[in-house]
Design goal:
With 439 residues, the chain is of the alpha/beta class. The protein folds into 2 domains: 159 residues, Aspartate Aminotransferase, domain 1; 246 residues, 3-Layer(aba) Sandwich (Aspartate Aminotransferase, domain 2), CATH 3.40.640. The chain is 37% helix and 14% strand. Bound molecules: pyridoxal-5'-phosphate (PLP).
Length: 439
């Protein structure tokens, strides 16, 4: 008989592999069991309050329990959650996404960013009738086989020389790596050379326009657009993080570069499972079932379906989220918080004599302990990982929940900013004597 009073951590350890829901673990064994969220705050089961920079891995851009989302979801749950057929919420949301995202003539909803990206790649491969995809080392496009190569989770010590792709997970067939090549983010000359060498085999180029928390150098995206455009190679923006977050029109609007296909997710979901692949009609129309999936011999059909695609609950949440995001001043506030956070973190590291790079763009920030500029996977991986863990742990102990990158939401205000910087300063002051003694 199991002990029903066993603390949740023990139950999690017994029933969840590693006691976790995914890959997120907190440093130095810090224990956190979430029980609720409100605005910019997340609460543990002891009802202790933390400023939340994880915000559902970026999926709660309005902050937890935003009244407009709560109301829309509550209303919809009484009307039905999932129909697997066109419905009023999904159609209205498709129109809104297509209106907002510059490359989006048409939209197909899915439940996760990983799904959206795998379909984007399938669409590019179907369109070009080629197999090879170029990605950027250190990017993350989801869990699917092709994406888990040369990703953020690559081991920097064993990663293969560019452009060869390395497999980052057991269980992925080795031939998958042969369908992918990798380029260094922000290095347009090397990228150009790789594209020139492989152009006849390339089905597409996929990237995060803001790779993890590393911003594109001025001109990088524009030049990549020019090179791929001139060679007729489809460009895919993984905007699962940047879509509706950097600007209402995502990175395409923010950086002024428009791809053929884009994937959006997290930011417009209001915390419910929702993502979309969208793009130019010439790509998206391959998803039209009238092309005859059943019994057809057409090699132009692209198969794609899902039980929860366009489910009314997620779409109602998305519609309510977008309505809030469209309010004047939203993006100025989101981006200005991010900028101030990065600036004040930089000052705080400098005042404490810590060599650190603070990077990011808009409402997405990160830091790396190195004196070299962080421009790509390798320069970030060269940072002092132990120091980063110690700082994240110090922040957790001071009620700042920022376990990997820092996403700020619409609900984050000057009050949370000041509290974050105070906690960072205290953390560094506590760590510094230990570091100095150790050196
Ligand atoms: C840029 C990017 N693409 C894709 C994904 C995968 O999205 P999901 O976790 O919804 O499958 C993520 C998730 O963190 C992401 O950050």
């Amino acid at each position: 008989m199991r002990n029903s009073d066993a603390p949740l951590f023990e139950i999690a350890q017994e029933y969840l592999p590693g006691g976790t829901l995914g890959i997120l673990t907190l440093p130095n064994g810090f224990k956190f069991m979430a029980s609720s969220g409100s605005g910019a705050y997340i609460y543990n089961t002891k009802v202790e309050k933390f400023i939340d920079y994880l915000i559902g891995s970026g999926s709660v851009l309005l902050g937890h329990c935003h009244p407009a989302v709560v109301e829309a979801v509550t209303r919809q749950v009484k009307k039905g959650t999932n129909f697997y057929v066109e419905n009023d919420k999904a159609v209205a949301l498709a129109k809104e996404v297509a209106t907002a995202i510059p490359c989006a003539d048409k939209v197909r909803f899915v439940s996760s960013g990983s799904e959206a990206n795998s379909y984007a790649v399938r669409l590019a491969r179907a369109y070009t009738k080629k197999d090879l995809i170029l990605k950027f080392e250190g990017s993350y496009h989801g869990f699917q086989d092709y994406a888990m190569v040369s990703s953020q989770f690559a081991n920097p010590k064993v990663v293969r020389a560019i452009p060869s792709a390395s497999i980052d997970s057991a269980g992925i067939p080795k031939p998958v790596a042969k369908t992918m090549i990798a380029a260094p983010f922000n290095d347009i000359d090397t990228t150009r050379r790789i594209i020139q060498k492989y152009e006849r085999r390339l089905a597409g180029v996929i990237l995060e326009p803001l790779q993890r928390t590393v911003a594109p150098k001025p001109g990088f995206l524009q030049e990549l657009r020019e090179i791929t455009g001139a060679k007729g190679i489809p460009l895919i923006f993984d905007e699962v993080v940047t879509g509706f977050r950097l600007a209402y029109g995502g990175a395409q609007e923010y950086y002024g570069v428009v791809p053929e296909i884009a994937c959006v997710g997290k930011s417009f979901s209001g915390g419910l499972p929702l993502a979309a692949v969208c793009g130019k009609a010439e790509f998206m129309d391959a998803l039209d079932p009238q092309k005859g999936y059943y019994g057809s011999t057409s090699d132009e059909r692209v198969f794609m379906t899902g039980t929860f695609n366009g489910n009314a609950l997620s779409c109602a949440s998305g519609l309510a989220t977008l309505k809030e995001l469209r309010k004047p001043g939203t993006y100025e506030a989101l981006n200005s918080y991010g900028e101030k956070l990065r600036e004040r973190m930089r000052e705080t590291f400098a005042e404490n004599g810590i060599k650190a790079q603070v990077h990011g763009d808009g409402a997405v920030s990160g830091f790396t302990f190195t004196d070299r500029e962080v421009v790509d996977f390798r320069s970030e991986a060269a940072g002092d990982g132990k120091m980063k863990e110690d700082v994240i742990y110090g922040l957790l102990k001071r009620s700042i929940f920022a376990p990997y990158k820092l996403y700020n939401s619409v609900a984050h205000t000057e009050r949370e900013l000041d509290a974050t910087i105070t906690a960072l300063d205290e953390t560094l002051k506590a760590i510094n004597p230990i570091r100095i003694a150790a050196n």
